[in-house]
Every structure is written in structure tokens, then in C-alpha cells.
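Milestone M4 deliverable, item 7.
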Amino acid sequence: MIILETSTAPNPRRVRMFMAEKGLLDKAQFVQIDIQKGENLTPEYAAKNPMKKVPVLELDDGTCISETMAICRYFEESYPETPTLLGDTPLEKAQIEQWVRWIEFSFFLPTGMCFQHTSGYFKDRMNPIKEWGEECGKTVRNFMAFLDEHLEGKEYICCDRLTAADINAFTTLAFARVVDIRVQPEQQNLKAWFDRIKQRPSAQV
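Output delivered:
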């Protein structure tokens, strides 16, 4: 298997952390795509992922799977003997999906929009709107306050163990530094949780 990725981007990091927690990093070859240079915009790359995003999982038979959580789902289902990160019971699966979606729409996506619309990183291929980026930054800060409150008395976001929800939130919070969004001094629950996840070997990949 091959994973086409950009190591500095948050979505590929989500996949790497997911695989690391399951002990599967050696199952795939990681090939770097320079998104700043537009290597993801070529016809060859678009044939693998018409959305032209990273990462992409290319299986040995040439089948390509795009979208971070779809790739994670493939590894979850293909290696059932490894630690589950998307839930065991119907209730766990539902709770984790709920949190993954909350994090995706209210934390990860606005963080990405804040970056794209305020940094000018992709100004050669999009029309950045600074005001929209700044508004997205407010959404990110509001979700961080919500997450800090939720984490009071908890080690993990849900299910009393590390799940994909923790991975997605951790990588988002780490990436938010590029737009100068950080845990606030009063958000002690969020800080303690972030520091716990940061100590895990998977956080180093």
C-alpha cells in the first residue's frame, strides 16, 4: 500500500496517528506530495483523487481511497485484531461518530478555513477572504472553550479511552498554532488533555 501525503498537513497526520495507535505504520509506504507547489493538482494525482486533496491511500491493486476518515475506517475494518479507535459497541460507535463530526465541522474545518483565508498560503489558486478567515477563528476559539468544559474530570473525549475523536481534536489543536490560536491559561482541562495525548508515541509521527 502507498499513502500519498504531505507530512506537515493536519489530515495526513490524523491518518498517521491513527495507524500508529494500531501499530500499522509499517503496512504502507508514505510518499510525499508538495501541495504548495501544486503536485496535488496534476492530472495524474486527480486521477487518484478528483478532489485533489491529501492524503490518498492507494491499495496494491490500484484502488484509491480518499478522505481521512474513510482511510481510517479501512484500517479499522481491515485489521480487527488491533486496538479499535472507532468503537466496539453500537453505542461507542455512535458516540465516537458524533464527536468526530462535531470536531470536523466546528473545529477542524474552521481551523483550515482560518489558515487558508488569513495566511495567503494558497492565494495562487483561491480567493482568500480575510474577514471569513477571522470569523472562522472565532468559531475555533468557541469550540475550544466548549471542549475545555467537556473535559472536566475526563482523560479522553469519549468512551473513557483514546479514540479517533481524540486524534482528530489533538491534530487540529496542534495545527491551530499556525494561525496563532492556542490553549488559553484558563483552559486547564484542555491543556491537561492535550499534554496527555502529546506524550503518546503516536503524537510523534
